[in-house]
Design goal:
53% of the residues lie in helices and 16% in strands. The chain contains 19 helices and eleven strands. β9 and β10 form a beta hairpin. It is globular.
């Protein structure tokens, strides 16, 4: 058959629907090959994706980069949110350590599995009953993050920029991180991981610390700019006398609570009749004490006859609270020498009260510098031989060091500035060893007893120096700067500042709300 004829025949076969078996088989094989290649290619891609995901997951890239919250259009990763979450959580634990069991917070159980009880709400006023502890801390963390974001935006708008003081504080924070991590045998990254979780890096920690320092400095700068005239302070005081006044008084509290256990220590159910009987007994005791007082016996001696149920208290600094006792003491009609028997069923107590005087804190606060020197801790156990001698020796070393510092000051310029330099060099008080050991507007009772008594000695004069010792704190090299404003003015000023700063903060943070991303928040906490 000629070539032209063969071609014509194939065309006719195709047009009639006929297929050459050889051609059909070849097409089928090509199709299966393509299908096989596609199948194995797809499987290969799947395995590759799984492998990449596994690597990414182990590297924490997803938790580090996943958006957990958005504030005013700016996205924050889970790691950044976790900075605020862990800071708030750890601060909460430190502040409420002795109450954790009472409020039902177990640090060994997932926060997501623990709900807030009605008892906890009594102690943690911004918590909601039934809310999980995780949600509580997450909400607080996002509030803080939003506030920092808002303050930084406001600072930029007001031209308040990063300065040397902030940089010094940041450097000190990072140095402390390095030192603390090293002291526990960790690298910085390992230590950050222990505190903030595996998503935290030094870069994230430093950046969020920088933002927090700027926000805090901006808010503090506003607070420092606030001033009030004498008339404004007096008007604020007159508007809320009970917030600042104190009462000089004596009182005896007689316990009127019904017993909750029997003589053998077994718990018993308390009935209303038992409660009424216990209060009636307390009232009888209070009446007897009051009768003795009116007959000329001192209130303290009269209470001593009933020491098992009666407690005597004398105070020249009794402040107002919402109670039957305080309401009686702060009654505007109260006169010196007034006395009475009070029943307070809300607290199951009876009181015998004597009023002496009421007024505000007119005494002057003081400014003082100090250098704290603490004795080294003994490496011996308390039951080891020589422990007490070792403690005494270390205490003597600390005392000598304090004396050497005072002698160094006396041998030098012997000025307030030179004392401040020594304080920055030697003091072990973290609250003042970067500010020359200075505490301003110190009020009575603020410091430990020995510190307080030295400052408020009636003979104290500017420039006085000395060394005092407290079992609680250690040796203090003292420098008396001078007297400051009356304490009542300090109190009123602080309250006005708090109110104005709160208003300023509310204004600057208005509209700044963190929008959560459930996926990213899953890596927080």
């Amino acid at each position: 058959m000629s070539a032209s004829r063969e071609k014509k025949t194939r065309q006719e076969q195709v047009s009639s629907g006929w297929t050459d078996p050889k051609t059909a088989q070849e097409a089928k094989e090509r199709k299966e090959a393509r299908r096989t290649n596609l199948l194995y290619g797809t499987i290969g891609v799947v395995f590759l994706v799984v492998a990449v995901i596994a690597v990414i997951w182990r590297s924490n890239i997803i938790p580090k980069t996943a958006t957990a919250a958005t504030v005013n259009g700016e996205k924050y990763t889970a790691a950044e949110v976790n900075y605020y979450f862990q800071n708030y959580y750890q601060s909460f634990l430190n502040d409420n350590y002795s109450f954790l069991s009472m409020i039902g917070l177990d640090t060994n159980t997932s926060l997501k599995d623990q709900t807030i009880s009605s008892t906890a709400v009594m102690f943690v006023t911004d918590a909601e009953e039934g809310q999980t502890w995780y949600d509580y801390f997450a909400d607080r963390a996002l509030e803080q993050l939003s506030g920092v974001h808002a303050m930084c935006d406001a600072a930029e708008a007001d031209g308040f920029t990063w300065n040397d003081d902030m940089q010094a504080e940041l450097d000190a924070t990072l140095e402390s991180l390095t030192t603390t991590a090293s002291s526990y045998g960790y690298t910085e990254q390992q230590y950050l991981g222990l505190i903030y979780g595996s998503t935290m890096t030094k870069g994230i920690y430093e950046e969020q610390t920088r933002c927090s320092l700027l926000a805090t400095a901006y808010l503090q700068n506003y607070r420092n700019s606030l001033t009030y005239t004498g008339d404004e302070l007096e008007a604020a005081y007159e508007a809320d006398l009970t917030a600042y006044d104190v009462v000089d008084c004596e009182y005896v509290r007689v316990n009127g609570a019904a017993p909750t256990s029997d003589e053998e220590g077994n718990e018993i159910e308390v009935t209303e009749e038992m409660e009424a009987e216990a209060m009636a007994t307390a009232k009888t005791t209070a009446d007897a004490i009051y009768a003795a007082y009116e007959a000329g016996t001192s209130l303290e001696d009269a209470a001593a006859e009933y020491e098992s149920t009666a407690t005597y208290t004398a105070s020249d600094n009794f402040s107002y609270s919402s109670s039957a006792l305080a309401e009686w003491m702060f009654d505007d009609a109260r006169q010196a020498g007034d006395s009475a028997v009070l029943e307070d069923e809300s607290t199951s107590n009876c009181y015998v009260v004597v009023f002496h005087d009421r007024g505000r804190h007119d005494y002057e606060t003081v400014d003082v510098r100090h250098i704290l020197i603490q004795a080294e801790e003994s490496e011996l156990a308390e039951d080891d031989e020589g422990y007490e001698d070792d403690v005494a020796a270390k205490k003597a070393e600390a005392e000598q060091k304090a004396q050497d510092i005072l002698d160094e000051w006396k041998a030098g310029a012997a000025t307030e500035d030179s004392f401040a330099e020594l304080a920055n060099e030697y003091s072990q008080d973290p609250g003042s060893n970067t500010t020359g050991g200075l505490y301003e507007q110190v009020y009575q009772g603020q410091m430990v007893t020995e510190f307080n008594d030295w400052c408020f000695d009636p003979a104290r004069q500017s420039g006085d120096t000395g060394i005092i010792y407290s079992d609680l704190t250690g040796y203090h090299v003292m420098y008396f700067v001078g007297f400051d404003r009356p304490y009542w003015e300090v109190q009123v000023t602080a309250r006005l500042m708090d109110e104005d700063v709160d208003a300023f903060y509310a204004e600057k943070t208005e509209g700044y709300t963190a929008e959560q991303s459930s996926f990213g928040m899953g890596f927080v906490g």
